[in-house]
Amino acid sequence: MKRIFSGLKPTGHLTLGNYLGALRRWVETDQHQADALFCVVDLHALTMEHDPGRVRRLSRQTATLMLAAGLDPEQCTLFVQSHVDAHTRLSYLLECTATDGELRRMIQYKEKGERARAAGESVRLSLLTYPVLMAADILAYGTDEVPVGDDQTQHVQLTRDLATRFNQRYGHTFTVPRATHPVVAARVMDLQDPTSKMGKSHDSGAGIVYLLDEPDVVRKKVARAVTDSGREVRYDREASPGVANLLDILAACSGGNPEELAGVYESYGALKRDTAEAVVELLRPMRGRHAELAADTGFVDEVLRKGAERAREIARPRVDAAYAAIGLLPAS
Ligand code: TYM
Q: Which residues make up the binding site for L-tryptophan (predicted)?
């Protein structure tokens, strides 16, 4: 059976981008078609300035929202990355496989590193090495497919390169995985700045729809979305990125096609109204279920305990094999 692995970083409240780009497919198809593992990748939340209490709270909230969105612990394995040592154990071997040059070329390192330096902050070494830990997350499980949004393509390509290089040098150890992306909304853009990605770690809340936003908050954010000075509703990501983003969101929510939907609307106002309602309806069941689950932390903790147990069992033999293959003396 095909193996799928993917993860969410607890660096902020989950957004519509996280849902449409990744989580929704995990729920609707991946967990039913494969042996799927989904992970709250908490170690990845430590690469930038962080507040320990907030990371802890967000880790639980992220897991709770993954369940509220419809991940079923009977159908998939849900766990927290730091509960399974295999990730950091394998990461070091992959650091010995990667070069500093290829990590310095990672777009997210360049962007986030530059931003931190410009703000006079130091850059944590883990911001540079983080894609190697991500490769370890994926490779430890013999993953075939990694369902992610567009922004993770470069990281999955690095994972493929490291797996191939390790296999060539030390003998076949890892499956070489491939990224899969949704057909629409692989990159949901910020409503206030439609040239940049809607990201949970951004400060401005106005352009970001959070999965737990109240319906009226969603309506307000969509109503205020930046469009352009034109009138005609066209699907043109270059010339009219704000309008194209709304069409992508509406298409993803309603199962339509963004180009065809463009022909249906005569005004931005009507497009915004329908988009807002489609998002509100999409999020409604999730908000209700989240409230129920948040009141029963024992259930969530038990799901995470069992998930980590299963994840450890799957990862251990492959990571042990990698330790042996690279030349380390097995412990007796
Ligand atoms: P993270 O936590 O930033 O995002 C989680 C998932 O949501 C997708 N996503 C989006 N998709 C469309 N539009 C958006 N605006 C948008 N924002 C986020 C991301 O593409 C991702 O699929 N490095 C990863 C976490 C990670 C991981 C892994 C993922 C660590 N190890 C192993 C897969 C496999 C990250 O920062 O995702």
A: 137
Is the complex ipTM higher than 0.90?
yes
Does the beta carbon of 290 lie inside 6 Å of ligand 1?
no
Contacts of 254 (CB under 8 A, 6+ apart): 261, 278
Phi, psi angle pair for 145, to nearest 5°: -130, 140
Of the candidates 175, 183, 259, 201, the one whose C-alpha atom is nearest the C-alpha of residue 1 is: 175
List the domain boundaries for the chain: 3-180+296-325, 215-291
Q: Which of 6, 8, 157, 193 to mutate to test the pocket of ligand 1 (most atoms within 8 A of CB)?
A: 8
May I ask the CATH architecture of the domain 215-291?
Answer: Orthogonal Bundle (1.10)
3-state DSSP helix/strand/coil % of the chain, to nearest 5: 60, 10, 35
Spell out the CATH class of 3-180+296-325: alpha beta
Per-residue model confidence as pLDDT tens digits over 263-303: 999 999 999 999 999 999 999 999 999 999 999 889 999 99
What is the set of active-site residues? 112, 197, 200
Please work out whether the CB of residue 177 comes within 6 Å of at least one atom of ligand 1.
Answer: no
pTM of the model: 0.96
User: Is the shortest distance between the CB of 41 and ligand 1 below 6 Å?
Assistant: yes
Q: Tell me the one-letter amino acid at 284.
A: R
